[in-house]
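Practice problem: predict the structure.
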Amino acid sequence: MGPKESIHDPLENSIPFLLRRTARYFRLGMQSRMRNYGLGISHWFFLRALWLEDGITQRELCKRIEAAEPAAVMALGGLERSGYIRRVRDKKNLRRIHIFITPKGYALRDELLPHAFELHALGVKGISERNLTIVRATLDKIRNNMAEALNGEIAGNHDL
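Answer:
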């Protein structure tokens, strides 16, 4: 470590801090919009994945959005009580639960996606498509590096 370097460099140099700070604003924006529908931000990612493909198992859904299964139980319970999804136990394997979007849940897609697109547009305003491609590739690389590095540590941890 050189004379001007410190283990206490400014937070603005910390990738984890920058990611958290940036994600926080997207989360706050979407959360305030979801509140108008009686939903929380925890419901958003489950809905988003299910709009792409429903009928998948709860475990597969959690894997796709990298969510902990205990968090899924709570979020999916709220979505089911609101009539947006239904959970169906697999008759061949009673431990498997398949998640299906209801017509009411599909209708919500047309109301919520424009909010997500609006927030995305606000966030990337003034950034060229070339730079956005680089940002996406860089974030994917960082995520993959961390997943690989922590694989042994998180293999038994379902709180992701």
